[in-house]
Batch of 2 targets.
Target 1
Amino acid sequence: MSNSSALSDAYAKKRPESASWYKRARAVLAGGVGHDLRHFKPVPLYIERGVGGRKWDVDGNEYIDFLLGNGALLLGHAPAEILAAIHDATDRGTHFGNDHRLQIEWAELVQKLVPSAERVRFVNSGTEATQLAIRLARAFTGRTKILRFEGHFHGWHDDVIHGFQPPFDADGSLGVPMQVRDHQVAIPAGDLGLVEEVLSRESDIAAAIIEPSGASWGRVPLAPEFLRGLREVALRHQVLLIFDEVVTGFRFSPGGAQQLYGVLPDLSCFAKVLAGGMPGGAVVGRTAVMALFDITGNAHHDRHQRVTHQGTFNAAPLSAAAGIAVLKQVAGGKVIERANAMAERLRDAWGKVLQRHNIAGYVYGLCSTFHVYFETDAARARAASSHQDLQTTDAGRLKGMPPELIDQYQRLLRHHGVDVMSSTGGVLSAAHTERDIDEATTAFERTVLSLLEDRSILSLSSPAGTVE
Ligand code: PMP
């Protein structure tokens, strides 16, 4: 039996309850799961509860969690202050459809923390936030097209679905009209000359949208100088700059990546940490742009000259309550420092594992995130004389590791009690402990040793590092 099917068997053996839920799921859930990233063989995870940096599945298996609600849980699972705020709000009714006090307090905190947040409009997710930001930019400029960067993820709506996964020139999804695709220009990030060229050539670009961390919360690193340059070029061409801070917001600093790097976008999108583990998102930005939501009483203006926006659950009370609770913690600065310190410990320890075993790869990431790159190109691995030599900012390479490798990596890690966010990386919370990191490092070491044995990953430039 191959190592990989032995692992699958051992994995399944510890998950009989999960298997029976999976059977029921396949008979009722379209696609068998609730999110493309939750597909998993032999069975998806069915999580029962979480506390701090850990969670447990329906079979009682324990995981050190670096998925953390897809990056939403900066304070870890079930933090007392957020649960108390939600309970308190629940006691007064879950949803009104009217505005309420908590929405305003939540917005005030966002305005106080985020440098460019002159005005705030709440939505229900990161996807809704980028959709609304793009509508605002088109309305403000009277132009149609969007400049986006290859590999950057901005949610799943039609306008942004092309160009986030390689091959970047292929359709993002079935079901998106060609005209929509024609409304975007996708280029590699990092080349200001190229941005200048596109903006000089194309007169119909309303906005440039970017993950300020670099694609997929920093999996493809981006120099902050590029953001500064982009700000300047966009201004010169009167194109709005949209920061997608869905992951970086309230995580990279209390005011997000824009505060960390000192770059002021015109509009920014938030979700995840913003709502403290409840559904929620926001578009924030310059008053002049956000005034497009205003109702003036002038019938012509109100019907024809503004941006419309509805949403049953916008700023729903429970989301607002959780959001206020988390942002109060974020404002203090300590929780971000703690999550960053834990991530640094992890990056350092996992990097040393790769060095100790002479594995062709490296560990990287900013603030409270981490990513692992495995070099699977034999020629490159052989040519590199140090881990340093493998470093790249090529989105095609960093986002193009073989899917079977990612699958097996995630299966091994879960088997050893660790869950990651997507691909090879994850996020840390203020609730993670040194012990969590040390145990996760042991799991990581076992994982890479198995991968090495299988020849799924390569050794670095050693004579033994020959690869089929
Ligand atoms: N933008 C970025 C940078 C994201 O990482 C995500 C979600 N992973 C989104 C937008 C979409 O957010 P949501 O899943 O809340 O729709």
Target 2
Amino acid sequence: MQKKLFTELGLSPELLKAVARVGYEEASPIQSEAIPVLLKGADVFGQSQTGSGKTAAFALPAIELVDPAIRATQVLILCPTRELAVQVAEEVSKLAFFKRGVRELPIYGGQSYERQFQGLQRGAHIVIGTPGRVMDHMDRGTLKLDQIKMVILDEADRMLDMGFIDDIKNVLSKMPPERQTVMFSATLPGPIQQLVKSFTRNPVNIRIQDQALTVPNIEQVYYELDRRAKVEVLCRLIDIEDIKFGLIFCATKMMVDELTEHLTARGYAADKLHGDMSQAMRERVMAKFRKRGLEFLVATDVAARGVDVDDIEVVFNYDLPQDSEDYVHRIGRTGRAGRSGKAITFVAGREIWKLQNIMRATKGKIHRARVPSADEVEQKRTSAFYDLIRDTLEGGDYRRHDELIDQLLDQGHTPTDIASALIHLAGGEKARPATEREPVANMTIPRREERPERRQDSAPESRVDPFKKKKRPAEAVAAESGDLSERIGKARNKRDRNAEVEPSKVSHEPGMVRLSMNTGRDHEISPGDVVGVIAGLAKIPKESIGAIRLLARTTYVDVGREHAPRVLEKLNGIKFKGRNLFISLAE
Ligand code: AMP
């Protein structure tokens, strides 16, 4: 089915503005079909799955119909569950944002009557409720249906399954007969057909069918997760799978903006593509991505249409696509020309239904995968670190420290203990024991910038070599070696080796806190630069700057606790060596 622009559907400027504000770039098939028909006043029976955008398909015409000057309920939306009623009310509220005076109210069982009475008394133009509670209010006389212009049955088949059929018939029979009737249902069992026949007038049938789709032969997996954990899981997957060239799809422009910011703040080379950007800007970003100047491109479906790039390793469906067709279109960007590719899809909460539709259309080749645990990420990190140590030893590309090692050996430490202590200090050892209860969003997950960099194309200096120091200004060397000797001293005195394991993001110096900056060796930053920018801009004494630890794309720096707020305030957002600096508390 053809998709249209929202501007082609006959909506008022206020609603178009709201749609743009929510970030929908293009109407989904059900919206493209249903909105013009509903705006003309016809009844509609829509067969469409959840996740197709059907809420906006009926909510936009419903909002358009309301006359805010009339203090009466003019639209009634019946939903099977309170969760759905709340979701629909939220969508209505977002879409009615620029329609002055339009009020919506969800009413459902379990919520206090008092609150609902007040809402109804104030005059709710659009009431979204579950059938039982709606009947209750009708019986009490607190909900009047005599001025209803439109009634919508959302997920009618589910309401039927839940035994609401009599309530629904009762409600429908008490409304003005000239009202507009809209029914949405995923399936069409006999009683629903009966309802349509009895309560609609010449309904326009709109059916969104999954088309036969040719799915590229690539590995497809999905992860079920909490919406709030998406960024963290994305970073874990990028890191654990060592992905260096990927396309990430989001549902809205806002999400694209937000995710791009998250990724760049975490040190990934990411940029965005969406409809609010000028053609010239989009072309610039595209060219950069094509030339591998970016690792990740975050985009909406519409903006990504022009993306014609080979070698994309992974396509992430950070947000699910509108339909199976978009899914196939999205994932077809990887695995081109016989190369291997992978599609990773995130599914949060109720979206699993939407994915099941996609699976049906794609013949179920999307496998469920488990979000890697902190332990697994850790293991991967350890093994990458092991490879790096081995490569460094085999390559012989390091400065020798025989004198220091001899001293330690003389003191009775074994070579294995010395090497273990150094690995621990270099961050190659688990920073903190992972527990089952650790939330996904926990910051102990090693991020890319903390892992040894193994890019083939990196210059030798940009590779992490924890044992090799560059020439640095005296103060930084002093700060760091002070930190090291203190830590080594501490480690020696402790009996219980496990107790020595300390989070690397916490300062070990009394009175100091550790800050994290989104810049590192890869950006040609030296400890001297870090001291310079902090002392210079935040005007704090150099003695208040402690250990500095430069990683590939992150720098940890200890500062006196009392100076930290000032450093954060003065340095955040400044340009530092040509990049926007983000600095935050690492602890
Ligand atoms: P629904 O089928 O109404 O439950 O919608 C599923 C999801 O799609 C919701 O999160 C909506 O916010 C989103 N959505 C609806 N219409 C659009 C659109 N035109 N473009 C992008 N996302 C949309």
